[in-house]
């Protein structure tokens, strides 16, 4: 099958409403809704690399998988899935950078978690069904709200009010007991002024990996008023997810013997043998978004956008832990049959309760030769973290209901203001300038969930973090429309970014994390004429103190990052598309890149011969350093390519999407036994649209994922350790400790083989 998949690589390398009876109202509403495109988006003459993805493009793929997978055909994009089937916990990388440095907004409002900087798509399942379109900007991009874009930004716009009433049902069912049901309704325009839309979605999948199930529910509701020059919209959307943990990867040997094995939730006997799995090893979270949008046309040249927002989140994850040291959980050792029991199995629950609110605005001016925007935002975030022990095996001491063993609170205030100008200096030549000032303050107070064995007496690590940052992010560029078919652009940008919560809490024993700075150079060319379009973009992203993933994970499976003084990402992105006939189209893109850290030193955790940590006298876990030099950045392939062949003929539509990704390193030590192998995967989609009496349209189809049954892994993690002789667990490292050897550990997340979903959409 691998030969067939590679051959494919080489060979190939919703509703649209026309309401004539409401034509005047429709044109007015469409014009007003265009105002809703918040000024953080790039336009045709903005000198940055970007890709627009339309509602129709999303709809043709939206049968259950998360948004990252719907964007996998765009340049320089990689996707990952813990459960292996693209539903549940998924993530996205752009130009090798992970989700914590990809700025995501909806209607200009930040979606990234203010502490982790990540975007958890699982919390808002099926949001794609309520999007009008989205834009991916690669590189620093334009000024935006929230955490800075350090590799890309994704700007999503929710759907507008349609002029006529409608209803739609879509459903799918297929492999791994995966199914999705979505119902959408809309009133159309009422008296030419008012409109309402609603959506309900339900998604379930058992997952490719054992017990890696996902139960996802979501909704979207909006109501809008459309005056002659004013739009006011209230939008609320949210979701609730319950997923069984699939956070731990598998060693190579396990992959060969049992690819679907899931070690999470394992219950072990005294000898460490797995005797069962905990049923409630789940992650639960609910998230609700509220947005109030005002769009005002002030004159023929000036427009105003104001948005107020609030996001409420609450959730927890529960897990079974084997042979845990009781004092680490605030529990007293107990005696049984004359023996003091210091370790026991237990079930813990870690909870978060967050609120995020604020406002954003922009004044937009459009003249004959000058486009300008002034905007900004102010947001406040608070998140309470705490952990509870809900059960202890054979415990004879006093255990209060929901015994709490740690608590801390994170608070963040984030404000920014920006000004943008795009001026047509000469006929076809535009100059672009963009300046942003951003100030933020981040505080964490309380206790961490980790135990400090080096303290006397030992105790939970205290968290007393109070940091503030001031960032100036200038950008400048030039766009040259050479003629109606050829365009050339160049830009230079500076971006700054603060550390995440995990950068602090995972490195309490090491040097405090530093803010990052990036200098982004972009040079691009596009050609578009008739049936053919093409483009090339060259980029050089020079980082100072970049926080890069070192291949290790923290206790809940989140990647750990570290500052590296000097590093860079450089590459060339090629895009081309051809309308071969009026019913056949072929689009391709490819990225060649070089991603390197200069003068890298690896830090190895010191362990004894049983793999247990050894501690230093003053810096927590003892470490041994190893100089590597210039080395590839983890999770950054040197080459990747996409091909999309699409056919649309008399109601029949088909597409074949193929993606090739070269080898990736799991850490920054350039070790061949810690890599993800290259892979090539193809997806085939077939559909047919027809009309039935009483319905506007019916679409039926089937999508086959991983058509050639490629065996591959798109994500993993790795760590290195230095093994020393003669230490017990939690012992302090001796000055004359004998070094034995280094040891590497690598684990992988398997992706599903060939699988399929059948789907149907009924439009009323």
What does this protein look like?
β30 (639-649) and β31 (652-661) form a beta hairpin. The protein contains 6 helices and 38 strands. The protein has a 22-stranded antiparallel beta barrel. It has a 5-stranded mixed β-sheet with strand order 1-6-7-4-5. Strands 2-3 form a two-stranded antiparallel ribbon. Helix content is 6%, strand content 59%. It is mostly beta strands and 764 residues long. The chain has a single domain, classed as Maltoporin, Chain A (Beta Barrel). Belongs to the TonB-dependent receptor family. It is a multi-pass membrane protein. InterPro entries: Beta-barrel_TonB, Beta-barrel_TonB_sf, Plug_dom, Plug_dom_sf, TonB-dep_rcpt-like. Residues 1-19 form the signal peptide.
The biggest beta sheet is recorded as: 22 strands, antiparallel, barrel
Task: List low-pLDDT spans.
Answer: 1-23
Beta-strand content: over 45%
Which value, in Å, is the CA radius of gyration? Answer: 27 Å
Instruction: Kindly give the count of domains.
Output: 1
Portion of residues within helices: under 10%
**Overall outline:** globular
Give the CATH superfamily. Answer: TonB-dependent receptor, beta-barrel domain
CATH architecture: Beta Barrel
Distance between the termini: 42 Å
Structural class: mainly beta
Round the mean pLDDT to the nearest integer and report it. Answer: 91
User: Which CATH top level class fits?
Assistant: Mainly Beta
Number of strands: 38
Number of helices: 6
Fold-level CATH name: Maltoporin, Chain A
């Amino acid at each position: 099958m691998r030969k067939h998949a590679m051959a494919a690589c080489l060979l190939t390398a919703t509703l649209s409403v026309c309401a004539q009876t409401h034509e005047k109202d429709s044109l007015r509403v469409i014009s007003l809704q265009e105002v809703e495109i918040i000024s953080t988006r790039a336009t045709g003459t903005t000198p940055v690399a970007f890709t627009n993805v339309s509602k129709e493009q999303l709809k043709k793929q939206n049968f259950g998988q998360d948004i990252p997978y719907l964007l996998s055909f765009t340049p320089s994009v990689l996707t990952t899935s813990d459960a292996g089937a693209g539903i549940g916990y998924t993530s996205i990388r752009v130009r090798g950078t992970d989700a914590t440095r990809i700025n995501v907004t909806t209607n200009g409002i930040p979606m990234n978690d203010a502490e982790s900087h990540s975007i958890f798509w699982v919390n808002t399942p099926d949001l794609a069904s309520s999007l009008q379109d989205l834009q991916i900007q690669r590189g620093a991009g334009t000024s935006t709200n929230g955490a800075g874009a350090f590799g890309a930004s994704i700007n999503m716009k929710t759907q507008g009010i349609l002029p006529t009433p409608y209803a739609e049902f879509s459903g799918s069912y297929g492999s791994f007991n995966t199914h999705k049901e979505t119902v959408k309704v809309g009133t159309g325009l009422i008296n030419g002024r008012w409109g309402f839309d609603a959506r309900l979605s339900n998604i379930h999948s058992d997952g490719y990996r054992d017990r890696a199930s996902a139960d996802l529910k979501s909704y979207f509701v909006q109501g809008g008023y459309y005056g002659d020059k004013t739009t006011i919209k209230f939008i609320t959307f949210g979701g609730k997810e319950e997923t069984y943990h699939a956070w731990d990867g598998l060693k190579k040997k396990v992959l060969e013997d049992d690819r679907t094995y899931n070690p999470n939730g394992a219950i072990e006997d005294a000898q460490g043998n797995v005797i069962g799995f905990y049923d409630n090893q789940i992650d639960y979270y609910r998230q609700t978004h509220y947005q109030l949008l005002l769009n005002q046309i002030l004159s023929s040249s000036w427009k105003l956008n104001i948005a107020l927002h609030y996001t409420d989140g609450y959730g927890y994850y529960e897990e079974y832990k084997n042979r845990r040291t009781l004092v680490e959980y605030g529990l007293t050792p107990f005696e049984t049959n004359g023996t003091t029991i210091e370790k026991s199995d237990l079930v813990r629950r870690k909870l978060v309760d967050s609120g995020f609110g604020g406002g954003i605005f922009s004044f937009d001016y459009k003249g004959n030769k000058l486009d300008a925007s002034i905007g900004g935002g102010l947001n406040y975030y608070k998140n309470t973290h705490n952990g509870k022990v809900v059960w202890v095996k054979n415990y004879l001491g006093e255990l209060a209901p929901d015994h709490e063993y740690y608590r801390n609170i994170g608070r963040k205030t984030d404000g920014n203001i920006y000004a943008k100008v795009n001026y047509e200096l000469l006929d076809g030549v535009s100059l672009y300038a963009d300046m942003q000032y951003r100030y933020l303050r981040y505080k964490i107070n309380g206790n961490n969930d980790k135990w400090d064995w080096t303290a006397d007496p030992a105790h939970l690590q205290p968290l007393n973090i109070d940091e503030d940052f001031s960032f100036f992010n200038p950008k400048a560029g030039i766009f040259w429309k050479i003629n109606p078919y050829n365009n050339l652009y160049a830009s230079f940008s500076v971006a700054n970014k603060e550390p995440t919560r995990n950068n602090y809490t995972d490195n309490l024993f090491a040097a405090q994390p530093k803010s990052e700075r990036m200098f982004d150079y972009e040079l691009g060319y596009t050609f578009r004429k008739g049936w053919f379009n093409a483009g090339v973009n060259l980029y050089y992203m020079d980082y100072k103190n970049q926080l890069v993933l070192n291949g290790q994970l923290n206790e809940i499976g989140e990647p750990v990052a570290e500052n590296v003084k000097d590093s860079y990402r450089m590459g060339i992105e090629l895009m081309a598309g051809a309308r071969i006939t009026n019913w056949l189209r072929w689009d391709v893109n490819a990225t060649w890149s070089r991603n390197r850290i200069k003068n890298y030193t690896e830090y190895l955790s010191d362990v004894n011969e049983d793999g247990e940590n050894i501690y230093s006298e003053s810096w927590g876990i003892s470490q041994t350093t190893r100089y590597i030099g210039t080395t590839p950045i983890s999770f950054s392939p040197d080459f990747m390519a996409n091909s999309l062949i699409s056919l649309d003929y008399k109601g029949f539509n088909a597409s074949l999407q193929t993606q090739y990704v070269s080898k990736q390193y799991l850490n920054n030590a350039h070790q061949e036994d810690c890599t993800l192998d290259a892979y090539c995967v193809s997806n085939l989609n077939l559909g047919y649209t027809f009309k039935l009496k009483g319905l506007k349209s019916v679409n039926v189809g089937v999508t086959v994922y991983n058509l050639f049954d490629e065996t591959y892994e798109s994500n993993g993690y790795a760590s290195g350790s230095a093994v020393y002789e003669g230490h017990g667990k939690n012992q302090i490292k001796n000055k004359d400790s004998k070094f034995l050897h280094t040891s590497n550990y690598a684990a992988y997340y398997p992706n599903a083989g060939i699988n399929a979903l059948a789907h149907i959409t009924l439009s009323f």
